[in-house]
Design brief:
By secondary structure, the protein is α/β, with parallel strands linked by helices. The chain has 15 helices and 14 strands. It folds into 2 domains: 173 residues, Glycogen Phosphorylase B (Rossmann fold, 3-Layer(aba) Sandwich), CATH 3.40.50.2000; 173 residues, Glycogen Phosphorylase B (Rossmann fold, 3-Layer(aba) Sandwich), CATH 3.40.50.2000.
């Protein structure tokens, strides 16, 4: 079997890319040939297929410092609305490699949904994995001013325009909405043969947005837990993994620690405080609450350092305020034998079994989060008890072979 995997990045920058490279490695073990298709970027991993990759949408690949020029403006519009260059290059790649299917991970605002039609014109099956809510939300995350918002899900974009939902930009919001209206008008997402969601929550959102139920298959993500030795001991700290973005709710984890000052437990956060305004708000909250000794920034960790940090934690904290779409941090914690304390929202309410593999609390309720964390302080055996159940769930539900067999079946059609 031969599959083209399409994602706008061919380097690890987040969850979709971590999944992509894990999938490619697992597919290789099954004898499946994977052909990457992406956007040209010097950060990309080396591949002989890079000559097929689409042109970047602007000269400055980080985009925040993109120069105001006609060339860059045209590139931004092309990538955001309809990327003819990406479509042309994908069609050539398909003709040259003759794949059985195209597996799309993320294309919006870069490759664009033009690649869906390109693949269909070449007579190739298209499977689209969904990792956020870009199809129904101008911002992708169903958040407006840090509150859950589904105003756009049925095609009314008035609120998005009013709030300038795309990075506070009026022009950027109009461009994104124009693209969304175009996709609805030409029914481009109807051309996808099958969608894969990571959880039932996301599947139900796609159905609510108008995707036929029979075109959606729920396949949870996976982790190679066989290669991870669980650790049921801990060094008395709670761990926040991942980006300190506002939708991840790190502020509520920090606020919870003000209720736990008397304990010897600390909160460790993977990352560092930068000079950004968002990070400074976080630091100010730490200082104002006298938490300088209770909140520890570990710096960015990966590989064995990250594995050790997870191993020695009491639990992993996921205080998200948005509809998380099955974050990798949860199954990573499970694989290491660690329970997860998370907001009762989106997929988190689905994949965390309350009082079995972790605990759930009401979103943004830092006092309630503190109550859950205090249970680990009062009962030092609780982390091990829940951690063992978390590890068992990981082995049963998120095994690599189970995932690959399910995805292969969908790709084959």
């Amino acid at each position: 079997m031969k599959i083209i995997i399409a994602n706008y990045r061919y380097f690890i920058a987040g969850g979709p890319e971590k999944y992509m490279f894990k999938f490619m490695s697992a597919a290789q073990k099954m004898g499946i040939e994977i052909i990457p298709f992406s956007v040209d970027n010097p950060q990309n991993e080396k591949t002989s297929y890079s000559r097929y990759f689409a042109k970047p949408r602007a000269d400055a690949l980080m985009y925040s410092d993109t120069k105001h020029s006609l060339k860059n403006l045209i590139g931004m519009v092309r990538a955001t609305v309809w990327n003819y260059d990406a479509a042309h290059r994908l069609r050539k790649l398909i003709r040259d490699t003759k794949p059985d299917a195209v597996y799309i991970l993320h294309e919006v605002n870069h490759l664009s949904p033009s690649i869906i039609r390109a693949a269909k014109k070449e007579g190739v099956r298209v499977v689209h994995r969904i990792s956020d809510f870009f199809m129904f939300c101008a911002k992708y995350d169903f958040l407006c001013e840090n509150e859950i918002c589904e105003a756009c899900i049925h095609g009314d974009y008035t609120k998005a325009i009013r709030h300038r939902c795309v990075k506070g930009s009026k022009m950027g919001t109009y461009l994104r909405i124009f693209a969304m209206k175009l996709y609805n008008k030409i029914h481009i997402f109807d051309e996808v043969d099958q969608y894969i969601t990571t959880c039932e929550f996301s599947r139900n959102k796609l159905i609510e947005g108008g995707i036929a139920p029979e075109k959606i298959t729920c396949v949870p993500t996976f982790i190679d837990s066989v290669s991870i030795q669980p650790c049921y001991e801990n060094d008395k700290y709670f761990l926040f993994l991942g980006r300190m973005a506002h939708q991840k709710g790190v502020m509520y984890a920090i606020e919870a620690m003000k209720y736990l000052k008397e304990s010897e437990y600390v909160l460790k956060i993977t990352g560092t405080i930068s000079d950004s305004s968002e990070d400074q708000v976080i630091w100010n909250a730490i200082v104002e609450n006298g938490l300088e000794e209770k909140v520890v920034f570990t710096g960015f960790k990966h590989g064995q350092e990250l594995a050790h940090l997870i191993d020695r934690s009491t639990c992993v904290v996921c205080p998200a305020i948005w509809y998380e779409n099955m974050p990798n941090t949860v199954i990573e914690a499970y694989a290491h034998g660690k329970p997860v304390v998370a907001s009762k929202i989106g997929s988190l309410a689905e994949i965390i079994v309350d009082n079995e593999t972790g605990m759930l609390f009401e979103p943004k309720n830092s006092a309630q989060l503190a109550e859950k964390l205090r249970k680990f302080i009062l009962d030092e055996g609780l982390s091990q008890e829940l951690g063992k159940k978390a590890r068992k769930k990981c082995e049963q539900d998120y095994a690599e072979q189970k995932h690959m067999n399910q995805v292969r079946k969908v790709l084959e059609g």
